[in-house]
Here is the input.
Amino acid sequence: MTAVLPALAAVPTSLSDQVTDGALPLAVLVAALAGLVSFATPCVLPLVPGYLGYVTGLSDVALEQRSRGRMVLGTLLFILGFSAVFVLASMFVATAGRALVEHRELLMRLGGVLVILMAFVFLGAGSQRTIRLPIKPATGLAGAPVLGAVFGLGWAPCMGPTLAAVLTLNLAGDASTTRAVVLAVAYCLGLGLPFLLIAAAYERWAPVSAWLRRRQRAIQVVGAVLLLVVGLLLLTGGWDALTQWLQIHLISDTEVLI
Here is the structure.
């Protein structure tokens, strides 16, 4: 028995392997930042009060006076709804990527070109549109997850630039389902956490919203620069070089217990 334990301890889980791989932590950070940038876009930020009102039930009661617990719960269900859509989309891309694994380098470079093009779209070249789905979820908590799913599907073109970067980052690794889910969850946390914080302290939302609106263009520029950097790294092969450097200098000597 004692001889078996060291052998088991020496076999890392697949998630541990990916965490210590060096590429995943960097990709997770980029994915979370992409989610934050998506939240601050003109097609999401102005609609926050409407979503919060919808998930708590349409009524004449001002949002500031509604039940804090109900608003937080409705927002969590809303986040779960769009998270399911983005996780499934990421898993689909991962499945397609594994089928073309022998062309990984080509896919990574093509993805880099796509991300660079999306950076210019993010800056205003072309248009970022939404899709109107013929679905009207019920108001209140029961319809909150469905509203989240509708948001994920209908607003995907608007959030396309940042979402494309996250999906491409999965192809830059081993295109595993685990990696796909981790990156999608990181993106959803970046996008969903502001919704949750606002629901928990809505009375403070007005000044925060005004501050973000005044800096919306600057946020878009920062997001575009982030996309350009990621796109260029993927296109030139610098992403692999950077993750190898992280592996050697920052992660190799760190033991991750999962």
About this structure: The CA atoms of residues 23 and 240 lie 8 Å apart.
